[in-house]
Amino acid sequence: MSGFIANADDIPVVLLAGGRSSRMGVNKAFVLLGGESLLARISTRITQRQRKPVALNADPDWPDTLGLTLVPDGIPGKLGPLAGVLTAMRDTALRYPQVSHVATVPIDSPFFPLDLIARLADAIQGRDDIAIATSFDRDHPTFGLWPVSATADLETWIVSDPKRRVRDFLARHDVRTVKFPAVETRIGPLDPFFNVNTPTDLIEAEKWLAALEGIS
Ligand SMILES: Nc1nc2c(ncn2[C@@H]2O[C@H](COP(=O)(O)OP(=O)(O)OP(=O)(O)O)[C@@H](O)[C@H]2O)c(=O)[nH]1
Ligand SMILES: [Mg+2]
């Protein structure tokens, strides 16, 4: 579809926190980085550029949403990150019926680019396009813009595909990838999508945070 424009200001954001945090051993959203929980950091960072209220995809008994609207998965069984994406799409269709896309941002990447949603939105060329972030030649599909028009396809695929690999779902759609550059720090280049999955990652994230002080 030509002439389609995805306006970043119209795109709602859903933070993804519906995983098991099995590698961290405790709920990742509440581990502290620089004295602040990952969830609080991500929430503050996203609201710096975000106009619409931000929702949180997490378990229904989540202890503290920090004022974000809680949107638990509708399908049981913790079927992986795309279960969170599906929840985001469904919630968007319900609450913002005019909107073409929803953005997802996981709660475990505290240095994600501030221009993330604007740049992903710029890459969208049609109402049905997906846009995902890449850095250092790696895709980061949990940082994505997802067309609400793909909801039915994801609903069917997620309960029928035996492997549920994100790249297999992406292969069913038109995907735009957007490259984000490394962030220069005092100790070298940082991948803006540095991911905190383990206690060791958290220690490394503290180093990056210190190396960024006064920079971003
Ligand atoms: N809704 C939902 N989100 C998920 C699910 N699995 C992972 N996610 C989210 O997808 C993002 C990437 O997942 P991971 O980094 O592997 O996080 P995780 O699954 O909590 O951690 P591990 O158990 O250590 O793999 C995180 O923001 C998770 O919260 C799921 O089954 N349902
Ligand atoms: Mg992760």
UniProtKB/TrEMBL annotation:
Alphabetical keyword list: Cytoplasm, GTP-binding, Magnesium, Metal-binding, Molybdenum cofactor biosynthesis, Nucleotide-binding, Transferase
Record Pfam families: NTP_transf_3 (PF12804)
Superkingdom of source: Bacteria
Keyword Magnesium part of the UniProt annotation: yes
GO cellular component, one term: cytoplasm
Binding-site residues for GTP, renumbered to this chain: 16-18, 28, 57, 73, 108
Subcellular location field: Cytoplasm
A GO MF label: GTP binding
Gene3D superfamilies per record: Spore Coat Polysaccharide Biosynthesis Protein SpsA, Chain A (3.90.550.10)
Domain MobA-like NTP transferase: 13-173
Cofactor: Mg(2+)
Its EC number(s): 2.7.7.77
Record's catalysed reaction(s): Mo-molybdopterin + GTP + H(+) = Mo-molybdopterin guanine dinucleotide + diphosphate
Residues that, per the record, bind Mg(2+): 108
Alphabetical GO biological process terms: bis(molybdopterin guanine dinucleotide)molybdenum biosynthetic process
Keyword Magnesium set for record: yes
Free-text note on domains in this protein's UniProt record: The N-terminal domain determines nucleotide recognition and specific binding, while the C-terminal domain determines the specific binding to the target protein.
Function: Transfers a GMP moiety from GTP to Mo-molybdopterin (Mo-MPT) cofactor (Moco or molybdenum cofactor) to form Mo-molybdopterin guanine dinucleotide (Mo-MGD) cofactor.
Assembly, per entry: Monomer.
PANTHER family: MOLYBDENUM COFACTOR GUANYLYLTRANSFERASE (PTHR19136)
UniProt similarity note: Belongs to the MobA family.
Name of this protein: Molybdenum cofactor guanylyltransferase
UniProt source species: Rhizobium lusitanum
Gene, per the UniProt record: mobA
